[in-house]
Amino acid sequence: MPYNARRVALVVCVVLLLGFFLLPNQTQTLFQQLGGPVGWLLSWPLQAVSAVHDGIGDIWDRYVALQGVEDENRQLRREIEHLQGQNNRLRESASATDRLTELLEFKTQALSTMVAAQVIGRDTSNWYRTIVLNKGESDGIHAEMGVITPAGVVGRVVKTTPGTAVVLLVSDGNNAIAGLIQRTRDEGIVDGTAQGGVRLKYIPLLSTVRTGDRVVTSGLVGGFPRGLAIGTINKIETEEGALFQTAELTPEVDINRVEEVLVIQSPYSPPASTEAEKAAPKAKP
Amino acid sequence: MKTLLYAILIVGIVPLQSILLPHATVWQVKPDIGLVAVCLVGLLAGELDGILVGLAVGWAMSLFSAGDLATGMVTKGVAGMLAGLAGRQMAQVTPTVLVAGLFTFSCLAGFAMMGSIRMGEDRDLWWALRAVILPQACFDAAVGGLVYWMAWERLDLDRVVRESRA
Fold this sequence. Notes:
The structure holds 2 protein chains of 2 kinds.
Chain A: H1 3-22, H2 24-64, H3 69-104, E1 113-122, E2 130-133, E3 146-149, E4 152-160, E5 165-169, E6 177-181, E7 187-192, E8 198-204, E9 214-217, E10 229-237, E11 244-251, E12 260-266, H4 272-279
Antiparallel strand pairs in A: 1-2, 1-12, 2-5, 3-4, 3-12, 4-5, 6-7, 6-9, 7-8, 8-11, 9-10, 10-11
Chain B: H1 2-20, H2 33-45, H3 47-62, H4 69-89, H5 95-116, H6 125-154, H7 157-165
Helix pairs in contact in B: 1-3, 2-3, 2-4, 2-6, 3-4, 4-5, 5-6
């Protein structure tokens, strides 16, 4: 590169660095917007490497690492039998709940749209606990959307490119999800700990919370509807003189092994019948 | 040729850091290959290449992280520039000097990242030092030192530096 061009390039770089210090928000927004096409471009090698990585993982899991599969099979069969019995009982309870709900004219809260996505990577730094999904803005995924598996809450979307989305896990200290103790109905904030665990903070001192209680989303804030499983309380801490209790949770989802997730695009939608009622002309008395 | 190499480096670092390195963690810490690469580029090719590649690598990596974009770009850009300036002042960079330098740069980058995140009651300076900054700095220094030592053994690095800085 000619000497003058080098000098100009160096000055531009230094101005850019100064820009980050003097006008951090504007410069960051500019690069975030320009990052769309760059992120789309970079998502291709990311997905290609992820596919090869998954393929090798599959071969390893199916053909090499088969130790203990027979024992696991037996244990799983026993578990299925147990779950079938539990399922029957729950069906009975569910039908009873449906009948009671109709009687009380509760409005049902239904999940409207969810997008299934695959986990293709983890955070590029050591400071955050995140996963990278293979779907992004072009699939209708935006920041602040909740991410779940059928077992429970995984985290929420914090950053997107056209082809990928970054999900901050529930075990990250920077995350905060409104939680509710299912039995006592006490509310609190679920966040991550430095050790990678999950805890429920701000439980009222008078709460009768105990170990084994299940914590679900409260649905008050964030991209989650009410009632999604977060975890089970395994330890309760009450400091002397503190105004609140804190509980450690065992998450419902094994966050380190999650492979496929569902992104909640809108937590609530009015039931179809309500919409039909609104649209239909009211009969005059 | 150099531009193509840099493009491959920038595109290749994200899958390496995001998909493959999580399998090579020690105490849940993985090396920051981006920082190592940027420092080596700065050292071998000069401060301008270091700062440009640093900004680009920082930008690419921050798109796939929850981290602050500005901190990622500035940290890596400045690391590349400082490595370039340091390389210009030294007659010969041995693997030992490089290991010490990488350790220092990684610690400084770690402190910069720490400044940009929300520290809570159980995430203080001691936690950051013990859990992330020092293990990552050791890891970065070891990986960078190994790569540089391999290049030192096989290539005429003085000639590479002379040609790439020309």
